[in-house]
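Homework-ish question, so no full write-ups if that breaks the rules, but can someone show me the predicted structure for this set?
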Amino acid sequence: MTTPRVFLVDDHQLFRSGVRAELGDAVEIIGEASEVEAAIEMIRERLPDVVLVDVHMPGGGGRAVIEAVGATHPDVQFLALSVSDAPEDVIEVIRAGARGYVTKTITGTELAAAIERVREGDAVFSPRLAGFVLDAFASVVPGDIDPELDELTTREREVLRYIARGYTYKEIARELTISVKTVETHVSSVLRKLQLSNRYDLTRWATDRRLI
Amino acid sequence: MVAGVAAGLADWLGVDPIVVRIAFVVLTLSSGIGIVLYGLCWLAIPEEGKDSVELPRFLTAHRGRSVRDVRRLGALGLVLLGGLLFLRDSGLWVGDRVVWPAVLAAIGLVVIWRQVEGARWKTRAGLGILFVAGGVGLFLAANVNLTSVRQGVLATAAIVAGLLLIFGPWWLRLTRDLMDERRQRIRSDERADVATRVHDSVLQTLALIQRNSTDPREVVRLARHQERELRSWLFPDSAAAPPGTLKGALDAVGAEVEDLHGVPVEVIAVGDCPVDNGLDALVLATREAVVNAVKFSGAPSVSVYAEVEPRKVTVFVRDRGAGFRLENVLSDRHGIAESIRGRMQRHGGRAEIRSAPGEGTEVELGMPLVAPR
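A: Not a homework solution, just the prediction itself:
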């Protein structure tokens, strides 16, 4: 398996060099940018496998980068970096198209694993995001519901519960006696619902914080 | 009934309010002195619970009118009408043509002056202006012939236009300056607020972190504490669940243990409900489980997951630490046997502990809800 080609977008020089050092040889970093405009241009030019993008940046933040590149190059995957895993920090980049997020306190090995997972098109969920999704999809919504998008299956719920309890995908697979690949499929399907659902809760939650 | 004067006086004199009211009415009917007295008392006697004399309550601004206020207003109107009719009969009367327009205009003025703030001030002001204009118009129509009025109006309009031309620009600039000044003051106030916050907490924490840089636990503790504080300041409505709810209680437990022991505790709650007796026991048992995990597991962090379902609440406390053999500790360790299991069972709940050496520990606590949601 080839090493993933990674592009780094963060407005803090210190943090970029820190990530470079921590990742070491696990990935190939093919470029970095410190601002939104330059990042969009360079990503379109160099076409990395995965873009590590900071949530908070001047000029529209990570969301602007993800939306602009996603519109022209849907094959490029995004993993968001955030100072913390509070939903208010990350839900907008997820909705914009990121495959997941990690906090900036993550260790190098964990980050490399998350990059690998995102490159393969899977999702990276933290316990807190799993809790938020369970909360947001828990209540009954009146009116039109598209069960494909607006409701979680029992299995998806089960998987999310384990993630929220702090289990890794491997541990979940063992508990539910399914394969890790199946766990990943469930999480990806939840991510898709989280991105596309028009659930009242999600929209209200986002508009309350002026994210939409 | 109007301003509580009679009731207040009666209270002071120690007689029934009705006696005082009758006295006022008699005085009013016989000579009109009652009205004057009532007005004087009204202004002079402080309202109950307030030290100084101030404008009667219903003349000052208040939001949301109660039935009581409407009754008071009606009573006041009747007293005024009575007074006016009495004056008319007694001969102290300037004439219908003057007094009625004056009353109309006065009501308008009261409406305008009464409440200049609040959401409906525009409607109020419009109504007041309508009243005043009506009063003035009525007065003019009844007292003066129209040709001279036209000339007068023209002359006045010319003067007003002249004044506007002379003072208008100056007045505009003054208002704009005032607005600018106010905006700048708000901005500098905000900046001062942020500066105080950064100075008082963030810089202090950074200083402490530098001094404790050899102790990683302490650094983590300080950083987490600061993060919580800053977050609750930046997002006041989303950061902290209200106290008295399960989410709030568990957040508090997490923060407390984190502060005491310097190990991050992630609390994730799905759903929420008020804390009753059983849930209080659940929260205390959770605390015990978290403290055990922090003290004995050696794990870098502990996760707490709570889920509120219609009929029960379940909490999982999990660490990836050392783990242990259950049969080795359950009998002699007081913490697990009494504080967790015993406490849960006494309140109708249950506790289940899963652990193996090298695999970490998970404590599952379940408590049925007394009042299903």
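Now go work out the reasoning yourself. Hint: The first strand of chain A starts at residue 5 and ends at 9.
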